[in-house]
Structures are given as C-alpha cells and as structure tokens.
Amino acid sequence: MARALAAEGSHVALVARDAAVLAAARQAVDAVPSAAGSGRRVIAVGCDTRDDDAVRDMMAAVVDGLGGADILVNAAAQPTPGRWSASTGSTRPTSPSRST
Q1: How many Å apart are CA 36 and CA 90, to the nearest integer?
Q2: Which of 33, 38, 44, 92 has its CA 20 to 30 A from that of 3?
Q3: Going by C-beta distance under 8 Å and a sequence separation of 6 or more, which residues neighbour residue 7?
Q4: What end-to-end distance do the CA atoms of the chain give, in Å?
C-alpha cells in the first residue's frame, strides 16, 4: 500500500517497532518512482503502538515531517481489543490540523 501511494506522489510515513524492518520498508518505498514533480516525502518513525507516549511522539513526528496525515493504513499485528469509538476518549492524540 505504501509503495502504491508513493507511486502516485503521496507523502508517506512508515511506522514500525523494529528498526531493521522500518529501514527496509523505507528503502523499498524510496525506490519507487513517483509522479514527476510530486515532491514526495517519505519518513520512517519507530513506534511501539502499545505505548501511548510513543504514539504521541510518532504523531508529532508525522505532523512535523509531513504536516499531518490524511490516510491511515493500519497493518499492526496485535490490535488493542475494544471498539474504536471507545478509544476516541483516550490519551491518543489527533492531528492538530484536523478538527474532531
């Protein structure tokens, strides 16, 4: 999915716990040719999504590096049990550029 979005010229933030996996993913996405003049940016951010502080730091890195996020593709192997609607009141941040 990240390669397909990058090929269309989208900015891409890659997030993973494992630094080696993250580096390989970034290298693969960086290698994808993008639409001419797209100015595509790819950032890689280490994050353990089970840690709320790490998630806040990751979101800050995405906002700083790309200006925010418009699309989220979740491929986490271990989702936290529960309903998404119940998590909106949690400590997890929303992008400061979006209203809720």
Answers
A1: 41
A2: 92
A3: 32, 33, 34, 35
A4: 26
SS3 59: helix
Q: What is the pLDDT of residue 60?
A: 93
Phi, psi of 43 (to 5 degrees): -125, 155
User: Model pTM?
Assistant: 0.73
Question: Look-up: residue for tokens 């994808």?
Answer: 32
CA neighbours closer than 13 Å in the CB half-sphere of residue 4: 2
Give 88's DSSP letter: T
50: pLDDT strictly greater than 80: yes
Provide the 3-class DSSP secondary structure of residue 20. helix
- Gap between the Cα atoms of 42 and 81, Å rounded: 30
